[in-house]
Amino acid sequence: MDQPTDEVLLDIHRRMVRIRVFETEAGRMAEAGKIPGALHLYVGEEAVAAGVMAHLSDDDWITSTHRGHGHLIAKGGEFDRMFAELFGRATGYCRGKGGSMHISNMDLGMLGANGIVGAGPPIAVGAAFSTKFRNTDRVAVSFFGDGASNEGSFHEAANMAALYKLPAIFVCENNGYGEYTPQANHQAIVDVADRASGYGMPGVIVDGMDAVAVYEAAGAAIERARSGDGPTLLECKTYRFFDHVGVRGMGLSYRTDEELEEWQKRDPIHMFEARLDELGVLSRDDAAKIHEGVLEEVRAGIEFAESSPLPDPETLLEDVYA
After folding, report:
1. Model confidence over 106-127: pLDDT tens digits?
2. What is the pLDDT of residues 284-312, one digit of tens each?
3. Do the domain assignments include residue 316?
4. Range of the domain at 167
5. Domain holding 157: CATH number?
6. 16 with 110: CB under 8 angstroms?
7. Where are the beta strands (DSSP E) in the chain?
8. How many domains does the chain have?
9. Between 20 and 30 A from 109 (CA), which of 74, 77, 126, 201?
10. Hey, which residues does 293 pair with through a beta bridge?
């Protein structure tokens, strides 16, 4: 496909910065005890969501994971309603009843974060099937991790999508760990993309720390899906800079400081900004101003959430589906 234009590059950059700043501030709120429940942060993996979502419209569907804030932000989520949801307030996207792991926005085609590992792929396949049945050009993108690729739900979804040539894209965000378990200890393979051949679909490996590489690979997969040629398994090799839960997690020693430091040298935002500066698309100073502007938006979102009311107990059973 064609090289991304300057406009696209700036769009990808803004999506990444919005994710990074939101997640960093959300982590601080959680550490301060202001956000209840578990918080799974997306810091370090921003290039994946931004590179994929730059191709999608509000009409396209996505399914997410327990680590889903980044996907919603990249799809166009608003900070105020997102923070309100994390704070459990009635003004949140799910009226304060979904919280971090079940945040969604149907208007943006975000079918929900999901606390059940591997639950997203079948939902995305259902959306893709409806798209084909109604003869529209929508696509459905499912994000999941290396651990979720071991679940039967993923394999059933992949089989059906390939069988019926559904407009689905399976994006495996392989950050090297299934919670606290290194990939080598829960899989006998190195590349999750190898599993694609078993279902009759392409399997593509991409550097998940390189936003342009993700953008180009996702573009090809999405074009293939829209044209009726069926699904693709896209494996993005990435890394989370924070712990599995929260910033510091539960203090478990399952990875070394040296490993984290090596991955942080390939920070997707820092590398991308260096590239934009070299291309003359965005200077370092202008990039810093974008970060500052987004931080102000995030702070306004936090103020909105903190001043919002809690849900009325009488509404407990409203908007609940089974």
Report:
1. 999 999 999 999 999 999 999 9
2. 999 999 999 999 999 999 999 999 999 99
3. no
4. 6-305
5. 3.40.50.970
6. no
7. 61-63, 140-145, 168-174, 177-178, 181-182, 203-207, 232-237
8. 1
9. 201
10. none
